[in-house]
Amino acid sequence: MDIIFKVDLEDKFRTVIEDTMEHLYVKKINSTILNEQIIATAKKEIKELLIKSNFNNQKIQELLLSKGYNEERIHTFSSLIQNRRDELLYLTLVNLNSSYGETVAKFDWILKLVYGTSELKNLKYPLLQLALTTVNDGKCQQRNYDISKDMLIKIINVLENID
To answer: What is the per-residue pLDDT across 53-77, written as a single tens digit (0 to 9) for each?
Structure first.
């Protein structure tokens, strides 16, 4: 993180910090200012800083001041973290959970009423389309499912009986 705080211009510093925060849990980040290895090291240090400080902005500022960084840049950095606190907490939780296996990060659903197919013109049935975005070790995957009414009832029963 030393190299990030020593970037020569304030605009470049802000750009690097914003890009790093935007892609904190993504494997690669394209930066024209710093190389990929430096960014990867900085991301690791930022994650450790967030966890060590328990996402407390005051502790983050104290830890960065103890390392002798510029106060104006510390304020820029901590305000960015404060503005993205909820998002960073969520991403940290999803990332931690996904390290133990595939985790659902987002879901969306659509309920459709099917009025026949090309073979059967008189067919009528409800259909639930479920779209899941899963994360496993930082890799996102989109999964789509077509669920019939009977299958939906079974899924609901299983979920209601989880202890």
So the answer is: 988 889 989 998 898 888 888 898 8
Instruction: Show me where the domains of the chain are located.
Output: 2-98, 103-160
Sheet containing 139-147: give its strands across.
Answer: 103-114, 125-136, 139-147
Work out the pLDDT band at 26, boundaries 50, 70, 90: confident
Q: Residue 43 is encoded by which pair of tokens?
A: 């991301």
pLDDT confidence of residue 18: 85
H helices of 53-138, in order, are 57-66, 71-83, 85-98
The beta-strand segments (E) located in the chain are: 103-114, 125-136, 139-147
- The Cα diameter of the chain in Å comes to 75
Distance (Å) of CA 77 to CA 17, 19, 21, 27, 142:
7, 12, 10, 21, 33
Look at the block and give the residue holding tokens 């940290």. Answer: 92
For 75-102, what is the mean pLDDT? 86
